Amino acid sequence: MKGKKRDAQVAFGRSPFPNDFTMASTDSKHDSDLKVDIEKTSSDSPAPALDAHYDPGFVKKTLLMVDLRMLPLLGLLYAVALIDRTNLGIARTAGMDIELKLDIGERYSIASMIYFIPYILLQIPGNIVLRWIGARSWLTICVVGWGIAQLGMGFVPTWGWLVFCRIWLGVFEAGFFPALVFIITTWYKRHEVQKRLALFYLISILFGGFSSLLAYGLAQLSGRGGLLGWSWIFIIEGILTIVLGLLTWLFVPDFPDKSRFLTDAQRKMILDRVEADRGDSVPDKMTGAKIIRHLGDPILWIMALMFMCSTMPAYAIGFFITIILRTMNYSVTMSLILTAPPYVLAAISCFFFAWISDKTQKRALWLAVQNLICIVGLFIVAYADKNGVRYFGLFLVNAGASGCIPGVLAYNANNITSHTKRSVSSAVVVAAGGIGGIFATTVYRQRDFPKYLPGLWATLACQFSMLLCLAFTTWVFKRRNQAYREGKSGPLENTPGFYYTT
Description:
Layout: H1 4-10, H2 28-39, H3 56-86, H4 88-99, H5 107-113, H6 116-121, H7 123-133, H8 135-153, H9 159-173, H10 176-185, H11 193-209, H12 211-219, H13 229-251, H14 264-278, H15 288-295, H16 298-327, H17 332-338, H18 341-360, H19 364-383, H20 387-414, H21 419-443, H22 453-485
Helix pairs in contact: 3-10, 3-11, 3-13, 4-13, 4-16, 5-9, 5-21, 7-8, 7-10, 7-21, 8-9, 8-13, 10-21, 11-18, 11-20, 12-13, 15-21, 16-17, 16-20, 16-21, 16-22, 18-20, 19-20, 19-22
Transmembrane segments: 70-88, 108-130, 137-161, 167-187, 199-218, 230-252, 299-324, 336-357, 364-384, 390-411, 423-444, 456-477
Main location: membrane
Keywords: Membrane, Transmembrane, Transmembrane helix, Transport
């Protein structure tokens, strides 16, 4: 506990239930009792002590309210973000390649990659602005802004103007995904997080997978208004994004301490659970010294490297799956249609591994299993002779890579405390995902068409690197946990009773 100021912030009102667990007391005995409860928690055993003080039905009902208010809308928004940043490959297949002469040199790779430069650079500033102006205002600005950039791509006359619009797409999307991760992880206990991250990401996978079918339908508008089909893809999707931005302003929830759709008792229960789980229910003030200190944690950079290794194959699939399918001698129509099924398997796999990860309270193990699935798929795509077998390999690549994205985010979120570190770490990790996007768009080179073997081997290198990172973080976390249990080190993450999740 950090004194009366924190207690006053957390105590929003008394629960209607007789066994209410209140954090409002500043009595030292209460603080010591709380510490005992927290110290029972480890990465190997959950601590139901706090929930036992609340009616289970009350807890379940409140969490369901939060889930329904937050996950569908945020999932839909992220689905639109993924579609808007990766639909370049679909538009290329639908005729943009010829109109803007993207087959000259590395124009397509440059247009794909340029988005990620502002996306990477603006992650941390975006999360700072997020706490300053609030989740609803910031997310609305981001969504409407990139919707306008997407709309503009439908009217570009040359390759240079396409690059210009892609830069602005990156500017506005930069603050969006780290804000989503930051917001979601502030509402739940550590071993409830991955299922939630997977659920909103699962929504984005399904919508993203079927975006090729939507794009195919929109391409049939070719000739209307004097515009070609690829233009209509950007125009309609841009308008839909702007509309969703307005819905964001109306419905997106803010941080738990600022939320208005819950009662005082519900808000207090959410904050109590988070406080007992990791001690950071109340935001701490962001300072330059804290940013520098958080950036000095080497584990943060290892988590960032793992996220880059996870996003690299996901972006490669997003940008190049329709093109790879075209190299298998499928027609344009069939290439767009066959893009969807691998995403269905990816959604199922993503949720299964999130469920088993939360249930077993193990992160690294199940991430490693998904890496191996991706590795097998990459070898099949690279070296199989038959098109049907290579197509099956795309299923495995997508399934293995997609589930690692919420998995790494949960792994990172489970092993940090304080709002400032959560803000900095989520921004750095997601920025590293942008580097994965740059990597994916530059190693799949036009001159390596149609097999793209150097790109596939670069993707394999990412998967092997992630396995090494997982082995290292598991070793470090277990050593630190053991040292703390034996009294050889102080509180982990400066939080008494906190243990790392392996």
